[in-house]
Inverse folding.
């Protein structure tokens, strides 16, 4: 939670990109709900009766709507990516500054691979969170809200049936997330161990070369990678 607060602090510095992303998601979700009505008119009012006089305006409308949807999605994804990169840049700068302020004992107590993973892999997870998770949740909520509103207008009974399934899906998602969290932590720990092995070999490459330890170190890394795959497959 502290990491998320820290990330949102940097997101606030570039909040205009966040607003653009949310605005494009709102436009995209709203227009996406209009698209089926246009195609339903093409089928019901043009194709089935065989009256093709109104086909061209509807096709132009559908194509224009599709173009606006693509533009909105492009602007939204670009804003999300730029925002996530700005957040990651600020977090890495803060994290690296904190590392440099630590005492030599701190680096003896913590593996180099752990520190490298925190500065790269963990921060990149935050980038993924801001670039895809946050906009995805926002867009899904908007689509759900728009869809339920339309369903209630068209058929309230059908909308209520859909609404009764939503809590079960949410509960299932939460349970799956809880089961995946330990696996993610274990994979992260293995990734840190791999980074430690690589870092140690790069720093001590002269010793490795002097004693011809290349096959041993390669096998050592292969075993750690195998343990990672075995753990994931067992889960």
């Amino acid at each position: 939670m502290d990491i998320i607060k820290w990330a949102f602090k940097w997101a606030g510095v570039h909040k205009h990109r966040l607003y653009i992303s949310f605005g494009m998601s709102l436009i995209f979700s709203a227009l996406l709900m209009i698209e089926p009505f246009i195609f339903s008119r093409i089928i019901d009012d043009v194709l089935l009766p065989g009256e093709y006089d109104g086909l061209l305006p509807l096709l132009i409308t559908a194509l224009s709507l599709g173009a606006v949807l693509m533009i909105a999605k492009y602007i939204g994804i670009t804003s999300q990516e730029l925002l996530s990169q700005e957040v990651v840049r600020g977090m890495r700068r803060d994290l690296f500054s904190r590392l440099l302020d630590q005492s030599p004992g701190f680096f003896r107590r913590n593996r180099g691979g752990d520190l490298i993973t925190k500065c790269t892999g963990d921060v990149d997870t935050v980038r993924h969170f801001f670039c895809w998770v946050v906009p995805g949740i926002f867009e899904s909520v908007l689509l759900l809200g728009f869809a339920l509103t339309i369903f209630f207008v068209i058929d309230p009974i059908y909308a209520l049936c859909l609404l009764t399934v939503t809590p079960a899906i949410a509960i299932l998602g939460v349970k799956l997330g809880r089961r995946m969290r330990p696996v993610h932590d274990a994979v992260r720990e293995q990734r840190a161990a791999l980074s430690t092995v690589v870092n140690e070999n790069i720093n001590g490459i002269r010793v490795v070369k002097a004693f011809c330890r290349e096959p041993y170190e390669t096998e050592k890394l292969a075993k750690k990678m195998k343990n990672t795959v075995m753990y994931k497959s067992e889960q």
Summary: The helical segments are 2-13, 15-47, 55-100, 104-109, 112-154, 156-203, 205-210, 214-234. Residues 229-235 have pLDDT under 50 and may be disordered.
